Predict the structure.
Amino acid sequence: IAPLKSSKNVFSFGGEQVPSNQVLEPLRQRIIDALSQTGRFTILDRQFDSEIQGELGMIASGQTQSTDFAKLGQALSADLIWIGVVNDFTYNKHVRKLQTSDRDLISYSGGWAISQRLVNVATKQIMQSTTLEGKAPEVAPTTLGASVDKNATLAQMEADIIRQATEAILLRTFPISIVELDGNTAVLSQGGKSVTPQSRYKVFSLGKELKDPQTGQSLGRIEKYCCDVVIDRVTPTMSYGTLENLKISLEGVKADSLQIRESIPASANKKQD
């Protein structure tokens, strides 16, 4: 897990300026803890010298050649490298003077965004390149002396980042499969820290495997959006969920042909409801 980077030296948080290093390194450590607790990774704890930092920065920005990944992997003795860049981490205090009185109208809003890349150094492939985003709890405009618990808001934003980053890595490296179906009730192949109750995921039905006609290399299997699964219960080794929003008939579909591909944010759940 590479040290988190940001182009900003400070983050605006609740009307105060917080040095970015007070946010970035604790976030990295908590991501390491979360991944370690899944039991599926051995996280290398090592120092990153200036040369390696430069290589990681070039990968994060997309400026490096894929052939450089092998050299970087040898230096780190790692199979996978996760690189994150915090583009935004703010919780702004908005103050507007009312024209009809001396009172201030105060509100709070903000959010975060992280660009992430997951690199397989053995194959020199970028396995994942996405942007993770989230919003902070908003406080509506008021003249009644709006106040927020900044520590609680900070903790909530950090927890959201850690959950999404860990989830994104897990879903790409250890896809969750459905191993048993009973009507609309599904048993998933992972539990413990890999999934959380009440979370929702998109489920895809896997079809025929396709191969490149020139190289014969597998291109993967045809995927068709099947449905959503909502996690009802989690055990140490597996989890139970309910299939919703069905797009295909499950008649004749084998459980092991259904695979989890991505999570659905809570905000999207509300829109669907």
